[in-house]
Amino acid sequence: MLNVVFYFQVHQPYRLRHLNVMDIGSDESYFDERLNREVMRKVADKCYLPTNKLMLKLIKKYEGKFKIAYSISGITIDQFKQYYPEVLESFKELAATGCVEFLGETYYHSLSFLYNKDEFLAQVEKHTNLMIQEFGQKPTTFRNTELIYQDRVSDLVFDTGQFNTIITEGVRRVLKWRTPLFAYKNYSRTMNLLLKSYQLSDDIAFRFSDKNWSQYPLTSEKFIKWIDQLTWKNDDNKNQFLNLFMDYETFGEHQWAETGIFDFMEKLPEEVLKHQGLGFANPKDANKLANYQQEPLAFPQAVSWADEERDLSAWLENDMQNNAIETLYELFERVLAKGDPELIEITRKLTTSDHFYYMCTKYFNDGDVHKYFSPYDSPDQAYIYFINALADLEERL
Amino acid sequence: MRILMLTWEFPPMIAGGLAMASYGLVKSLLKAGVEVDLFLPTKEFVYFPLRKEDDADTLPFIMLDEDYQPRKEEVVTKEFKTIEEKMEYLGVTHIPETYYTPALVKEFTNLISTFKTEEIEHRSERSIFENIIINLQGHEDIFKKVQEMAFRAEKLAELTDFDLIHANDWLCYPAGMVVKKMSGKPMIAHIHATEFDRAGGPGDDRIHKIEYSGMLYADQVIAVSKYTAQMIISRYQIDTGKVNIVHNAFSFEKDNNFNKERMFKGPTILFLGRITVQKGPDYFLSVAEKVLKKYPQVRFIMAGTGDMARKILRSSASMKLKNRFLFTGFLNRKQVERVLQVSDIYMLPSVSEPFGIAPLEAMAYGITSIISKQSGVSEVVEHAYKIDFWNVDEMAETLIYLIEHPEECRKVGLLGAHEVKAIQWDKSADKVKKIYQEILDSNRGEIDA
Question: Looking at residue A247, which CATH number applies to its domain?
Fold first, then answer.
């Protein structure tokens, strides 16, 4: 059986406003309320609301056979509440179907696992509580920020006692000759690992509307044919997982409605379910479906789903990124020591990985992707605003 | 006495050195009864007939039509809410172009020696103009604008009635020379900065030659400091008898608010100016790195913009100066005042600073100043620390001393504030007026004879 596992990342950061040194001490918010509201409203209208509607329709139509998973960062839920409560309602409707799994992650979509273990665990716990409160689910699958994973993440996650599965990128340098279709174990065999099939995932997420792509246009029939050709059939009765992981904004935002992305998605379940031996599963199902000895995989270095490198370089490569994040976590200790809940909350919003992503200076295609997602003119501007926020924060201690 | 004043920058659109000097001088000249027809590189063809002191702030203008006749209707009907709006309408440049340094000239070897031999060959008026024409060739916008200004000045010369031409820096020399040629009126070349200062090295050969020709053709030259006068005499070999020194100054405004405020709990050190090689921002950064090792609570503010901003920013990140080295970007007048209110120590590590008005302003705010010995301003102030720009260790030690002795720091700051009150534009304008008078008298003498 080959199980198609859809997982969607739903995340919006609290973007910083153009914070000047001269604003320090002015007591104004660090965050660009107007921009954040605008982006949330726009993305919700183009993606979240119509895609949720489609997903709900498909789930109802296939009566439990179509399953999907989301990881929604805590600050995204907060922004739903602030700027567009209807979106949260529509996710709740999806949660109520029983076919939708909500994954665990850090509340602030942060890189805290690298800098502050206690803070990482605190953010994961805070997110878990939010999932219970909003969707009535206690996550058992963990997805670290931007699919970032390395061995020590599994140790930290295992220590929570809450999770049994982690999803991450199926990077070739770790998999080597192996297929990403099997469920694996982490290096210490304490957790299941599900690995993204990035070729097929990116066919949808990045290449779908690319007219220069030799496979354009991508139809659900064609896509199913590719799935059907995968080598799974040779492995008798072993449950495998085709992990299609992507930004939820793929639907309607990165790929506009006019590209036909919604039609593609609408037809896909039917095509999958037509084929014997093909079906859908949630990440949490891997724990009971994996009917074989799972090979442990070691990830001594961090991997992620970002850029060609699929490592941490999108966030932590250049001097600006490193100085910014190190200064932040150093300050964080002092913020915690002071114990002012408002300052703690502000600092936590600054831990969101996007702030460092905007400071990325890599060129070529990936640089373009960074630029597309950045609200600022240049990485240097992003850095200046962030450092100014940290300077102001320090004065408030 | 009426002066045709040609300058490239004027407040409020730009608050850089040349703009502030032009403003201070013009205002005090008006106060001293000198009438000024001000001419700026505007998009619209206009000039500003300034007759009384307030005109330096309100900037009344006369707009000219295609036939170079005053366009009455617009002047009468158009109303502006602010002076900024007016200047915007007339198309006054926002960008500090005076410090434009073409990135064309890469090889500097032997430039100065070849330059000097050429100098001697071009002595006649014709060759001076040929020199200008040759060196005004360039595809860069700035050269086109300088050409345009010279062209307009020729028309203006026929239209207005003035006694003397006062051209500020190389951008205005071609225009000044054309007007002198057309009108037969005497010309003053005012040197606020030479290409050597701006480039922090030999710089653009074309600009040197324009500077040289302008000074040669002028009846008198005004240098903003001894430092600059020496540069003119040694590098451009201008006749010492023609070179006058008139220091810049700083005039208080009625609404100046000198009250100190705290933005940061720790000592706050300020760099204020263009982030270009001339201003030595890299020395400021090195000093910051040294001081922060000993006193991590100190804040360094780098205020301004410039072509080295990115380099300095990235270096500060690689030095891991945390959130202690901050960049303001471009600051308007109000923000400049505020940054002065919140700073404790001002640093001017300029590699070459013909004058440097900014330290005077900083001192007026009671800010203790550490200034480069390679600056004109160091000639006029006593109560400031004067250090060679390259001596990063001494600058760092001085800063540390001031941080450790806040009382001493305050004392020097107060003495400095008191001192700069005496450095007023009125005095400098009197000197300039005297130079005008002498030229006019000697010209009259020549005619009489």
Answer: 3.20.110.20
Contacts of A332 in chain B (CB under 8 A): none
C-alpha closest to that of B219 among B448, B449, B419, B444: B444
A294 within a domain of the structure (yes/no) = no
Q: Hey, which residues 228-267 in chain B have their CB within 8 Å of chain A?
A: 263-265
Tell me how close the Cα of B142 comes to any Cα of chain A, in angstroms. 26
DSSP assignment, residue B254? T
Identity of residue B103: A
Q: Residues of A with CB below 8 A from B326's CB?
A: 21, 384, 387-388, 391
Which B residues, 319 through 338, put their C-beta within 8 Å of a C-beta on chain A? 320-324, 326-329, 331, 335, 338
Contact status, residue B349 vs residue B395, Cβ threshold 8 Å: yes
Is B335 in Cβ contact with A323 (below 8 Å)?
A: no
Residues A388 and A246 in one domain: no
Question: What separation in angstroms does the CA of B243 have from each of B222, B240, B440?
Answer: 6, 5, 16
Nearest residue of A to residue B265, measured between CA atoms: A395
Query: Do the domains at B2-249+426-448 and B268-420 have one common CATH topology?
Result: yes
Pairing of strands B325-329, B345-348: unpaired
Same domain for A183 and A125: yes
* Of A24, A323, A390, Cβ closest to residue B320: A323
Instruction: Mark residue B356 as left, alpha or beta (left: phi above 0; alpha: psi -120 to 50; beta: remaining).
Output: left
Using a pLDDT cut of 90, give the percent of chain B over it: 57
The number of distinct structural domains making up chain A is 2
The residue among B188, B149, B202 whose CA lies nearest residue B172 is B149
List the single best residue of A24, A323, A376 to mutate versus B (max B Cβ within 10 A): A323
Going from N- to C-terminal start, the domains of chain B cover 2-249+426-448, 268-420
Q: Which residue of B has its CA nearest to A386?
A: B323
pLDDT tens-digit map of A40-78: 999 999 999 999 999 999 999 999 999 999 999 999 999
A66 within a domain of the structure (yes/no): yes
Task: Count how many pairs of residues, chain A against chain B, have C-beta atoms within 8 Å.
Answer: 65
Query: Cα separations (Å) of A289 from A6, A71, A234, A281, A295?
Result: 16, 21, 18, 9, 15
Residues A380, B329: C-beta atoms closer than 8 Å: no
Task: Using alpha carbons, list the distances in angstroms from residue B109 to A384, B105, B112, B145, B157.
Answer: 38, 11, 8, 29, 41
ipTM for the whole complex? 0.91
| Cβ atoms within 10 Å of A173's Cβ, excluding its own | 10
Q: List the domain range (segments joined by +) for residue A92.
A: 2-289
Inter-axis angle of helices B169-183 and B205-217, nearest 10: 40
Residue A295 falls inside a structural domain: no
Q: Which residues of A are catalytic?
A: 146
User: Does A266 fall in a domain?
Assistant: yes
Place of tokens 């960074």: A370
Which tens digits make up the pLDDT trace of B156-184? 888 889 999 999 999 999 889 988 988 88
Nearest CA in chain B to A19: B328
B156 touches chain A (CB under 8 A): no
Task: Identify whether residues A338 and A195 lie together within a single domain.
Answer: no
Q: Order the strands of the B187-191 sheet from edge to edge.
A: B62-63, B46-50, B35-39, B2-6, B164-168, B187-191, B220-223, B243-245
**CA angle, corner B366, sides to B363 and B371, nearest 5?**
35
A118 contacts chain B (CB < 8 A) = no
What is the architecture, at CATH level 2, of domain B2-249+426-448? 3-Layer(aba) Sandwich (3.40)
Flag if B323 and A322 touch (Cβ within 8 Å). Answer: no
The C-alpha of A118 sits at a distance from chain B's nearest C-alpha, in angstroms, of: 23
Minimal C-alpha gap between A340 and chain B (Å): 19
Fold for the domain defined by B268-420: Rossmann fold (3.40.50)
Least confident of A200-214, A296-310, A360-374, B399-413: A360-374
Alpha helices in B263-372 (DSSP H): 281-294, 309-318, 333-341, 357-364
